[in-house]
Specification:
Elements lengths: L10 H9 L4 H7 L14 H6 L6 H17 L6
């Protein structure tokens, strides 16, 4: 099965992630886009970095969980 990347990054970032088995933080760091070796450890995470904190990792996680629970909370809509 082919591995898919579910978040769209610039081609160079994807190449580093796939070829070097790096995580996104490492790819951003290797490309000189950040001084943080672990973007995931800073407030907002990578999504916060990419969106200038318009959407943070914390917000993204919260809304992802809410959307995942819709089927359980409103099962009649998914029959």
């Amino acid at each position: 099965m082919k591995k898919e990347l579910f978040f769209l990054y610039q081609k160079k970032k994807n190449e580093i992630i796939i070829s070097e088995k790096a995580d996104a933080s490492q790819a951003f760091y290797k490309l000189g886009l950040t001084q943080h070796e672990k973007l995931g450890a800073i407030n907002g995470g990578i999504i916060g970095f990419l969106t200038d904190q318009k959407l943070t990792r914390e917000d993204f996680t919260k809304y992802s969980i809410i959307m995942a629970l819709v089927q359980l909370e409103r099962p009649k809509l998914y029959r």
